[in-house]
Structure formats: C-alpha cells, structure tokens
Design goal:
mainly alpha, 4 domains, 16 helices, 2 strands, globular
Length: 313
C-alpha cells in the first residue's frame, strides 16, 4: 500500500478552480461557504483561490454565490484589534501559559481570528502582537526533537483534519511544533510532507519472527483454521507479530478507514472532540495478529466499550 502527496496546482485554470467551488457548494447544499469549509471538501488549496482572484469573496461572487459573512456572534464584537489581543492575553492568563494555540482560542475566544490571520499571515505573528510568546518548537523540555516526533505531529493533524495538512494549517498553529522546526529539518514544508510519506510507505506490514516475540504460557499457535470456540479459550498464544501498533501501520489503517470510526462513523474532521484509536478486531490476547486485516479504526468511546469482546458475524 502506498500513499502519495497531493499534486501541485500551479497550472490549474481559473475555470477549473471555479468549477470546484460550484461542486463544493452543491455538495454542501449552500449558497455560501467559508475558506475553512472549502479546505475540508475542496480539491485545491483555498490560498490558491484567494491569490488567483484577489480575495475569497471575489471568487465566491464569480460563481454566483453569496459573499461569505462571518457569524456576528464571533466577529461583530471586534471593534478594534486591541480587543482581540486583550482576549488572547486573558485566555493565556487563565490557562497559566505565556502562549496559546489556535485550538485553545477556538475553544475559549470571543472573536473570529480569520480576518487578522489574513492580515498578519500567521498565528505566531498574532501572538507577538499580543505580547505573548510564539508557539514553542516543542511542548516541554528534553532531548533533541527526533524525525519521528515530527512525523507524529504531522500524523496527528492529518488525522484531525481528515486530509493532507497545508502550510496554512502550520502557520495557523495546528501543530505542536513551529514552522521553522519543520523547514530547518526538511528544507521546507513540502520536504517535510515528502519525508513523512516516504516514512509511512517504507514498511507495509511490520511483522517480526516468532523468535523475537516472547512466549507467555501456551505453546499452541491459534491459526485461522482453529475453531472459534478453541480460539476463544486461549488467552496466551505464540504470535507472529507484536502487540504494539507502530506509527506507520496505525496511519495506514486510519487512512484506509477514511479517518472515521468503523463502529459509529464519527470523525475528528467533523467533531473535534472525537479521538481515534486503532484496535485489533480479533483481540491480540486471544490470538489475533497485528496486521492490516485484523486492525480497524475506532473512536475512544467505541474502543473502551469493546474491551476484549469478540464480535461474530
């Protein structure tokens, strides 16, 4: 199994961009939508569209849609930028921090940040304007940041958004690590994504030999030919694979399952409170192996409710 990055769209025509806006409007059954909504469902980057047509609303008007207006609940209260910066500082103080993430502002903030982000280009710029510290290169202190830690951060945001993260997601503070951390390590954001995809594709199904897996108590190997009752009675088996699911395999399972819970269908892309897990379909302690075929994506609630139960067809 191989995963590829989205293609560059520098040579895409104006009409193709506008056609995709019409497609998303039809998909959402709406006469107007925001850049963030397009980012979830669109084929191209919203920044590509705004650069091509001068602004997001210019592009929206060209396809006969209404100018997108930010909800008054979050925007009309902002009479001057100082109100926004004061709100940021108040949240940071209440959280006991000298910086805040975009997710924290979305949760506790009073205003819409999109207009100021467009003006100042990045969340770090807004933090500095508010007299706060920039998002740190890493959360916490310790050893040198490893490539795998950066890959885990990319994986986390990719799963949360349900799509390939963009440079705008990085600038807007979706990541635990700062933009400079990725660009210094990989030469740019595109280089970071390419390194991540190469890492993910470097191993299809991680398996180890029986000699590498400690035998617990039973010498019996449960095979697919074992009858169901016999399999259920065995809690200690010799396995061909480790129980732990590594980063590569976990991401591949989630992408195969479209970053949604296989039980209830919920996804972090539509509900930020959803936390996804990858779990064995047939429990490892009962003989199940750590393979693509025996793994599925579940949300935290469905996973906790399942435990070591075996669901029969």
């Amino acid at each position: 199994m191989e995963f590829k990055l989205n293609e560059y769209h520098r040579d895409i025509s104006d009409e193709e961009l506008l056609d995709d806006l019409r497609r998303v409007a039809e998909l959402l059954k709406t006469d107007s939508f925001s850049r963030s909504e397009y980012q979830k469902y669109g084929k191209y980057g919203s920044s590509t569209i705004t650069r091509r047509f001068g602004s997001w609303n210019n592009a929206i008007k060209k396809v006969g849609l209404k100018v997108y207006e930010v909800s008054p609940r979050r925007h009309d209260f902002l009479e001057k930028e100082e109100d926004f910066f004061s709100d940021m500082k108040l949240i940071a103080k209440s959280l006991g921090k000298d910086f805040i993430t975009t997710g924290e502002y979305e949760q506790y903030g009073r205003f819409d940040r999109s207009a100021l982000l467009h003006k100042y280009s990045s969340w770090d710029s807004l933090l500095q304007m508010a007299g706060l510290k920039s998002t740190p290169y890493r959360l916490g202190k310790g050893k040198e940041i490893s490539d795998e830690e950066l890959f885990q951060d990319i994986e986390r945001v990719w799963i949360k958004l349900g799509r390939q993260p963009t440079i705008n997601d990085l600038k807007n503070g979706e990541f635990n690590f700062a933009q400079n951390t990725f660009t210094r390590r990989f030469g740019g954001w595109r280089g970071a994504l390419e390194a991540f995809v190469n890492y993910i594709n470097s191993e299809d199904v991680p398996e180890v030999s029986n000699e590498d897996v400690p035998d617990t108590t039973s010498n019996e190997i449960i095979t697919p030919e074992s009858n169901c009752q016999s399999a259920k009675s065995q809690y200690s088996t010799v396995h061909k694979t480790r129980r732990d699911i590594n980063l590569r395999l976990r991401f591949k399972v989630m992408q195969r399952d479209h970053f949604k819970c296989c039980k209830c269908g919920r996804s972090p892309a539509t509900d930020p409170t959803v936390v996804l897990h990858v779990d064995h379909i047939y429990p490892w302690v009962k003989g199940g192996e750590t393979t693509m075929e025996n793994l599925e994506t579940t949300c935290m609630e469905c996973n906790l409710g399942k435990g070591d139960l075996v669901f029969e067809e």
